[in-house]
Design a protein that fits this description.
Blueprint (H helix, E strand, L loop, with lengths): L1 E11 L2 E11 L4 E5 L6 H8 L7 E6 L2 E2 L8 H6 L1 E5 L10 H10 L5 H14 L15 H13 L5 E5 L7 H16 L3 E5 L3 H7 L2 E6 L2 E6 L10
Bound molecules: adenosine-5'-diphosphate (ADP).
């Protein structure tokens, strides 16, 4: 569960990237986060992953209070949150299988668990028959599926996808979003940052709209009114 209570984040004095954000995302929800460039979306993600601390207010993520969290607790927080980026961030020298297995090794999983779990997540994202390939030998859509498999492999309760379809054509974008929806149906909470208004319209999920560091709308309809200014 994610809860923001009146969160303010200033990077420099007098400049508020977030100016009193309050919102709650329950376990199991699928939620879009939309807003123009510079509105505070990345800042929200970095607060959830513990990369940043709020200047004031409270951030609660999966039982951790981010304003109070100790440095040594941050790796445990991060295991509860899988992150997927627009640019995939795969290791080009490793195979598909190794990219996913590596994410388990760095958190100390046993080889036995790795052998059980990696094929399961590759199957889930539709890459079972590509396990021996390298990322450079795959399409953008396949690379994003791999990034999703890696985010999932340590069984996080939540996935945050930051513009996951930003580099994909409309058909591939649709397929990736359908995959994220399927993963959500299996119980993983999903927060998807996107600029793609067509996808947001098509999937009809909760949309949190932010502008200039505040939530301007929260519901089934996205609010893009700021574009008319
Ligand atoms: P978005 O992800 O929606 O594009 P950001 O969260 O990156 O927005 O940025 C929100 C505001 O905070 C912007 O005005 C941006 O210029 C400012 N900002 C972001 N990161 C920094 C930083 N490291 N130092 C100073 N200002 C920053």
């Amino acid at each position: 569960m994610i809860e923001f209570v009146d969160v303010v984040k200033s990077y420099t004095q007098g400049n508020k990237a977030l100016n009193g954000v309050s919102m709650q995302i329950e376990d199991g929800e699928f939620c879009f986060l939309v807003g123009p460039s510079g509105s505070g979306k990345s800042t929200i993600i970095k607060l959830i992953t513990g990369e940043l601390k709020p200047t004031s207010g409270n951030v609660h993520v999966n039982g951790y209070s981010l304003e109070r969290i100790r440095k040594r607790e941050i790796p445990y927080l991060r295991r509860t949150v899988g992150v997927v980026f627009q640019d995939y961030r795969l290791i080009s020298k490793m195979t598909v299988y190794e990219n996913v297995a590596f994410a388990m090794r760095v958190v100390g999983a046993r080889e036995r668990e790795i052998k059980d779990r990696v094929p399961y997540v590759l199957e889930l994202v539709g890459l079972s028959n590509k396990a021996g390939r390298h990322p450079g030998e795959m399409s953008g859509g396949e690379q994003q599926r791999l990034a999703i498999a890696r985010a999932l492999v340590n069984n996080p309760s939540m996935i945050i996808a930051d513009e996951p379809t930003g580099n994909l054509d409309p058909q591939r974008s649709f397929e990736i979003m359908a995959l994220l929806q399927e993963i959500n149906n299996l119980g993983t909470t999903m927060l998807v940052v996107t600029h793609d208004q067509n996808l947001v319209k098509h999937f009809r999920k909760r949309v949190i709209s932010i502008n200039e560091g505040v939530v301007v709308n929260d519901g089934l309809e996205a609010f893009y009114g700021y574009e008319d200014k």
